[in-house]
Design goal:
The protein is α+β, with helices and mostly antiparallel strands and 422 residues long. It has eleven helices and 15 strands.
Length: 422
C-alpha cells in the first residue's frame, strides 16, 4: 500500500459522518473485505499444504499451532491428553516466576553454639556447588572466627526424610539424584577411578573420604558421575565432608565429628548465605540442560515458600493447582512433580498453548542449547517438543508436539514443517 493510499484511508476513518464520507466508508469497508478475503485465499493453500505435510509425517502425532491472536493454524489430535515428559519444566519455571520471582535466592543458614559446634540448616538450594562453597567458606570463617570448631551438625529437616519423587525411583542417572534440603554438587560425585585409586574429576572440588569409598564401590573405571540417590544419610554425610573441606581451605579448623541433627531452639544464625545465582539464572539452566533434580528442588520450594516447611509435594501441587485454576487451566494441566519424570503428569495441548502465552514474558529463559525458544521431553515411548517458533507467513507462533514413539528426530522435522509451511 502506497503512503498516499494510507493517508486517504485515515482521512476517511477520522472524517465526520457526512453523506459523502458515508459513501466513502462503505467503499472502504468493501475494499477491506476484499483484501481480507484475498489474504485468506492466498494463505489457505499454504495452511492446507502444511497440514498435509504434518499429517503425512506423523498421522497419529499430536500437533497444535496457534498464532499470536490465538487462532489455531494446525490442530491435529489436539484433544488427546499427553504425557509431557521434560516439557513439564516450562510449567515449573512459570510457576516459580509467579510464586518466587526471578530475583529469588535460596538460603543456607549457619549457627554457632557456645561450645563452637557449627550447625548448617539446608534450605533446599539446588545450586550449592563447589564454586558456591568456595564463595561461602571465607565469609563463614570470617563470621565464626578461626578458633577450631568442635563439631559440624547438618540439619536437613526442611525436607521430610520420607520424601520421594514419582519417577525418580526408576532412574539411576546422575541428574535424577535424590532431592534434599542440604545437598552439594546436585547430590552427585564426579571423579576419576583407576583401579582402587580415585581422584576428583574437577579441580574446584576436593576429594573426600566418602567420595572415594562411594566411587570405588559404584563408579566406572575412568571418569564419571554417580548419583547419591540410594541413601539420604550418605548424601548428607558427603555434603558435610565437602563443606568441612572448604572451611579448611578458607583457613578454618574442624576438630570434631560430622553428625546430623536439628538447630537448637532459639539459636540465631551467625551467617546466612544467599545463593549467588538468582532464580532466573537457575531456571535457564534447567530449561537448557533439563536437570530433573534442580527442577524438583524448585518445584518443592514453590510450596515451601508459600506454606512454610517442611516442604512436600502436596503443598507444591496445591499451590500449582490454585494458580492454574486462576487462569482456567486446572483441568488442562495436571502435575505430580516438577521435572517430567512422572507419567502421572498429564497436559492437554490447548492448555499448554495457553500457558505458553502466559509464559511469553519469560520466554528468554527458554533459549536452549541450539539457541531456539523451545523445550524437548523424552521418556520411553514419549517424545515431546513445545515452545515458540517463527513462521514464514504468520510470524511467531506457539506450538505443541507430542508423539507416542522413541523417534526424537521426528518432532524436529515437524517443527521445520511448521516454520517453513505456515
Amino acid at each position: 500500500m502506497r503512503n498516499d493510499e494510507r493517508a486517504h484511508i485515515l482521512q476517511i476513518l477520522v472524517a465526520p459522518a457526512r453523506p459523502e464520507s458515508l459513501r466513502s466508508r462503505a467503499a472502504l469497508a468493501s475494499w477491506l473485505g476484499l483484501l481480507a478475503l484475498s489474504v485468506l485465499l492466498l494463505s489457505s493453500p499454504a495452511l492446507a499444504g502444511a497440514r498435509e505435510k504434518i499429517a503425512k509425517l506423523a498421522p497419529s502425532g499430536l500437533v497444535l499451532v496457534m498464532d499470536a491472536d490465538g487462532n489455531e493454524l494446525v490442530a491435529q489430535n489436539a484433544d488427546r491428553p499427553f504425557v509431557p515428559a521434560s516439557v513439564t519444566k516450562i510449567v515449573t519455571a512459570w510457576l516459580a516466576m509467579e510464586v518466587l520471582g526471578g530475583e529469588y535466592r535460596f538460603k543456607t543458614r549457619f549457627y554457632l553454639d557456645a561450645d563452637r559446634v557449627l550447625y548448617v540448616r539446608g534450605g533446599g538450594d539446588p545450586f550449592l556447588i563447589s564454586e558456591e562453597l568456595a564463595l561461602l567458606a571465607p565469609r563463614l570463617v570470617a563470621a565464626v572466627g578461626k578458633e577450631p570448631l568442635t563439631g559440624l551438625v547438618l540439619d536437613a529437616s526442611y525436607y521430610p526424610s520420607d520424601l520421594r519423587i514419582p519417577g525418580v525411583e526408576r532412574s539411576s542417572r546422575a541428574y535424577d539424584a535424590l532431592n534434599s534440603a542440604l545437598a552439594v554438587n546436585f547430590n552427585t560425585i564426579h571423579a576419576v577411578r583407576r583401579g582402587k585409586k580415585v581422584r576428583s574429576a574437577e579441580k574446584q572440588t576436593p576429594i573426600t573420604p566418602l567420595a572415594i569409598s562411594q566411587f570405588r564401590a559404584r563408579g566406572p573405571n575412568g571418569r564419571g558421575r554417580i548419583s547419591l540417590a540410594q541413601d539420604p544419610a550418605v548424601s548428607l554425610q558427603y555434603a558435610g565432608e565437602l563443606i568441612a573441606a572448604f572451611i579448611r581451605r578458607a583457613g578454618g579448623t574442624l576438630n570434631g565429628e560430622i553428625t546430623t541433627g536439628t538447630v537448637p531452639e532459639g539459636l540465631a544464625p551467625v551467617y546466612v548465605h544467599r545463593q549467588s545465582h538468582p532464580l532466573s539464572e537457575i531456571l535457564t539452566e534447567i530449561l537448557r540442560y533439563s536437570n530433573n533434580y534442580i527442577a524438583n528442588q524448585i518445584f518443592l520450594e514453590i510450596g515451601g515458600h508459600r506454606h512454610g516447611g517442611p516442604v512436600s509435594l502436596e503443598k507444591s501441587r496445591n499451590v500449582a493447582q490454585e494458580i492454574l485454576a486462576a487462569h482456567g487451566l486446572a483441568e488442562a494441566i495436571r502435575l505430580e512433580e516438577g521435572s517430567g519424570l512422572s507419567r502421572g503428569n498429564r497436559f492437554t495441548a490447548r492448555g499448554l498453548a495457553r500457558l505458553l502465552d502466559l509464559f511469553a514474558p519469560h520466554a528468554g529463559l527458554l533459549y536452549g542449547q541450539d539457541g531456539a525458544p523451545h523445550k524437548t521431553g523424552t521418556l520411553s515411548g514419549v517424545s515431546t517438543l513445545a515452545g515458540y517458533a517463527k513462521t514464514a507467513r504468520h510470524g511467531q507462533v506457539r506450538f505443541v508436539i507430542a508423539l507416542r514413539s522413541n523417534n526424537g528426530g521426528l518432532r524436529f522435522r515437524l517443527l521445520r514443517a511448521i516454520e517453513t509451511g505456515l
